[in-house]
Amino acid sequence: MSKPRLAVLAAFALALASAVMAQPPAPPAEKAAPKGPPADREPQMSVTRHSGAFNGQRVNYTATAGEIFLRADNGTARAAIYYTSYVAEPRNPNRPVTFLFNGGPGSGSVWLHMGAFGPRRVAIPSNGTDDGAPPYPIVSNPDSLLDVTDLVFIDPVGTGFSHALGDTNPQDYWGLTADARSIAQFIRQWLNDNGRWNSPKFLGGESYGTTRSAAVLNQLEGAFNDVSLNGVILISTVLDFGAGADTPGNEMTHVLNLPSMAATALYHGRAQASSVEAFVEEARRWAMGPYLHALVQGTALPAEERTNVRRDLARFTGLSEDYLERADLRVTPARFYRELLRDRGLSVGRLDSRYTGRDFDSAGEEPDNDPSFYGIDGGYTAAINQHLREVLGFRTDRSYVTIGQVGQWDWRLGQGRDSDAYLNVAPYIGRALRENSGLRIFVGQGYYDFATPFFAAEYSLSRTGIPRERIQYRYYGSGHMMYVRDEDRVALSRDVREFIRGR
Predict the structure, then answer these.
(1) Across the chain, how many H-helices and E-strands are there?
(2) Listed residues 339, 371, 403: the one ending a domain
């Protein structure tokens, strides 16, 4: 995933093969993957002991910064998964343990670790402004969840310090299903090593990490040797990639983005309403009613209905009716970022549309970059390296990959051409809920998030076969990484803590 775009959605293509020659040429030899570190070394590990106050409770805990090797059936080490765990002392095998990761794909767990739930965090500006240059304050985090659960932050292969070993091709781990298998293998091995098989277990991810959560849930509970979970924590959720794909001909993407546009227009003074909650609820109803009805008619939309929809669309989005007419009532998020505040010479952020930035000029159709990412990345990169290397004592020459390019990602679910053309992992969650009566789902969403819009999350989890009574939603007045806003970090911590306690 490239840093400027942080693209979460992938483009899907069907490859057509031609076999017209009687004697087809031998396929070219695959390019050898570069050799990784030797597979015969021992996993690196640093164990330190600490104490902190979390949610007003003093907790003594052991921090482990280390690696677990993923091995083939013959015992050969194929990949080193780096993780950071925080386990309360004295150890209690009946205490909950929560496994956490971020998304990308290609992102390390730095964001949830140093921003939301770890015992220390980086204190960047809370009001949607740039984090500037170092030094960045790295402070104790009273909002960590260590008072109610042990924590294990996982970096998948190609992120953080995790990497392939020996002759293993890292591409073997870079796919929706392959990645989920590797994380499930890691979890099983961690449970073995730490004697935690009967502990209450929670799984949590952010962004593509929610996609990963659904796929890992399927790997853990979808076979006979189950690892049953008590809860899954979805933060900034993306499950149904088909419905949310910003591609010509997909009308649902415009419906699902509309409430986020309304919230953003209100935040920046381009719409009027009594509250963001009331406005987005009105936008939800209008989007699934008159707006969807108009879009699916296409060129058959009657002129009077078009006029009414264009007027209401302008009220919700803060864009002019002239622009909306020229856009054929269909404004992609990238165009919205640029157009909403064009008269001020500003673009709004993708990850968090509270942020604004200035582009090279004011004539572009899309922003040059995402101000809500370059406004936070410096602080997080410095914080994770300082914390892991200096506080936890993990020594390595490797660079910590916060956001990296993990090569071509295999998005297939392995169900055949027609199934894989519409990528949706929400049915994994539905099946797990139906087959595990103790499983519950937490969904946390920011109103100003266009990477994973809140209405798209609601839509994906309201489909047939997904029991709604065991899914709880919480909303925050920020964007994709809602914990960068102080008030929302406190609220998110409180909400997840209550979710864990409610098992």
Answers:
(1) 15, 14
(2) 371
Q: Do 407 and 354 have their domain in common?
A: no
The DSSP output letter for 480 is T
Return d(Cα 294, Cα 307) in angstroms, integer.
11
Asked whether residue 349 falls in the same domain as residue 380, the answer is no
The pair of structure tokens assigned to 474 is: 């919480």
How much is the pTM? 0.90
Instruction: Find all residues with CB under 8 Å of 152, minimum gap 6, and list them.
Output: 83, 84, 85, 86, 97, 98, 99, 100, 190
Q: Are residues 384 and 491 in the same domain?
A: yes
Domain termination residue (choose one: 371, 392, 410): 371
- Nearest alpha carbon to residue 440 among 466, 401, 418: 466
pLDDT given for residue 5 in this prediction:
39
- Interval 335-345: pLDDT, tens: 999 999 999 99
Domain that holds residue 206: 45-242+376-501
Residue 163 has pLDDT above 70, yes or no: yes
* Full DSSP string of 331-358: --HHHHHHHTTGGGT-EE-SS-TT-EE-
Going 376 to 473 to 118 to 102, the CA torsion angle's sign is negative
User: Distance between the two ends of the chain, CA-based, in angstroms?
Assistant: 36
* 178 phi, psi to nearest 5 deg: -60, -40
Q: What pairing do the DSSP bridges indicate for beta strands 77-89 and 163-164?
A: antiparallel
- Whether the pLDDT of residue 8 is over 60: the answer is no
